[in-house]
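This part of the workshop introduces the protein records we will be handling. Getting from the letters to the tokens is the skill we practise here. The record below serves as our worked example for the rest of this section.

…
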Amino acid sequence: MSVLCPPTTYLPPIAKIASFSVAQLLDALTYLQSLYHPEVRGSRRKRVQVPVSNGEQNLRLRHEDDSELQAIRSDAFERSYSIRWLTTLIAQLEVWQDLSHSEEVSLDDLGTPEPTLAYTEIIVQQAASLLAICAGVAAAGIITRNFVFGSTDGQRRVEAQLTDIPLDNNDYGSVGAQTWGGACILAEMIVEDPERFGLYSSSHSPESRRLNVLELGAGTGLVSLVVMKLLDTLLSFNHREVHVVATDFHPSVLANLRSNVDANVSSTHNQMISTHSITTHFLDWSLFSTTPRPDCLSYPFDVVLGADIIYEAQHAVWIKGLTIPPAAFHLVIPLRPTHTFESNTVESVFLQACDVDPKGDADLVILSKEYITCDAYGDYTRGQGLDEDVEYVYYKIGWFT
């Protein structure tokens, strides 16, 4: 497949749709799915079963030039052509379905696509779904994805539906309006092993006190929502109070974060699980130490989470000032060539535990460090010269006394 190929070039000609095979039509639909409803880049860990958006193994386009990709995706003519193509495909298949039920027409008279009713229904469903995406809110740059995370033993399963919104006039501060791969990786790791992230309840005193969880730079809210939904399912937390606070800074990001939380946490949630709650709140890291703290941020947190939140030189410094005992800070960041300096600030602000004077004052240190490698756009491109890796670092940062 040609990378960054527009629909007018890649899709089978509209006038000849009826002459193409089921396999070719499915390939075309997968191409459109990847173009107009893409999976989060860099969210698939290698050699590990990982979350799949919408429950499908999608074709992932590797885009060497994201600006060129965005140009195709936002091109009104290309989108209009895709809508006409999908409309024609659905109409053609519906005619085929009607004829296949006719006693006056034999299957041999129908030609291609192959006369398999099951395949036809699948294609119609996929095409109809894509048509709604292309003609609906996705046309305005709004994308809604379904995420499913599960433990390797099959004992835990968490689902969340999140909406991404367009960046605010290319304002760099609004990057949280979209779901990034680091959030997917952190959410998946938490579901796989909650205890690793301090999300466990003591068997001898499960109701001792509230578990407080804070997410910094929550963005679309994926990590906070996954934590909340996960703890709702764990029996050890049935009677323990839990409070999750999802924070962000940019107005449009915070509004979308609140919308996603409302969409995932029903109005009856607090009635069913009265001890568990999740809230959203504005938080300016740079002013945290100099301004009065709101009630929801005034108590100590047990767990602090952050995914892809180090992209300016001062971020690590500000975050250190936010993390107070007894909190453990779990951070996942991508190693972007364009942000090497910013990424390196983590290890200059937070020292390694072995480098800290054991006789000195308590300090936040890096307790562990793990590299994580992901396929940029899944396994479809393997063997075609299109594979690309995205590398992350997971830091566990805690108090050294």
